[in-house]
Amino acid sequence: MGKVRVSRRTAAEAVVKLAILLLLFDFCKSSSVFSVVGTVNGNVTLSPPNIQPAKEILWKKGKNKVIEWDSDGLTPYPLFRDRVALDPSGALHISNLTSSDEGEYEIEIHPSSKVMKFNLIVFDPLPFPTLECNPVNESIVVQCAVPENYSRHREQLTYSWHCPLPQCGESTTPVLHLKKNDDLQKQKGQLKCVVANPESNRTSSVDLSSCIPHDHSRSRYPLLIMPVIIVVWLFVMCYWKRNRRAGPTT
User: Which residues lie below 8 Å from residue 228, measured CB to CB, with a gap of 6+?
Assistant: First the structure.
């Protein structure tokens, strides 16, 4: 009898654990949030997966209704009127995005009572970066700068460099350090900086040779020698004129 009680107890515990696991799985599944990105003035689609035939579909942004479909037809609400569409699969299309469209969206599907959430991130249009080269000690520092007025989601910007030098493939920051040496003086081609966010990217480039300061020491030699030549020439002319005035001796 003891063994029977133990087995029944073990079976009951297993059933309870299985039920808890199923509840946790269902909770995790229902609480998942899909991430979507878009750009101001662009278009975006929020597509719920595996939608079964429904009698009612309601999209909300926070507590505000976006668009609803039921037996009375399709009803877009003022917040998104003339900018939203709903297709038979339940996908929500939003056009002419604004920064205020960013936020959490939720779709309610009936009669299944299924709820799915989407987090929409709206980026400002990405500007082209500017490149600036400055010599610092024995290095050349190249700055890839995005205008300061691009402030929203700036933390999501990524940087990459492209040029014939190995340093370009190694750097992922907005600042590139190039070491001055003989090899650098010989380099030709484009130095490119690519700035990207999850939605788009922009590239700016500059001739690598324009970033390399040239050695002007040789070009200064003529300037240094010229005064010496002038002094010697004046001395010779003065000597020649003095001898000419003196005339021939008898």
Answer: none
The CA-based angle 243-245-248, given to 5 degrees, is 65
User: What is the reported pTM?
Assistant: 0.69
- All structural domains of the chain, each given as residue ranges with its CATH number in brackets, are 12-123 (2.60.40.10), 130-211 (2.60.40.10)
Distance CA 70, CA 57 (A): 7
Indicate the length of the chain as a whole number.
Answer: 250
Which residues are CB-neighbours of 75 under 8 A, at least 6 positions away? Answer: 67, 68, 69
Give the Cα separation of 157 and 103 in Å (integer): 20
pLDDT at position 111 is 83
Q: Residue 193 forms beta bridges with which residues? A: 161, 204
Encoded tokens for 36: 């979507």
For residues 210 and 184, is the Cβ–Cβ distance under 8 A? no
- 92 or 186, greater pLDDT: 92
Q: Give the Cα separation of 129 and 141 in Å (integer).
A: 16
Q: What's the rounded Cα separation, in Å, for the pair 101 and 237?
A: 86
CA distances from 78 to 65, 84, 140, 204 (A): 9, 10, 55, 41
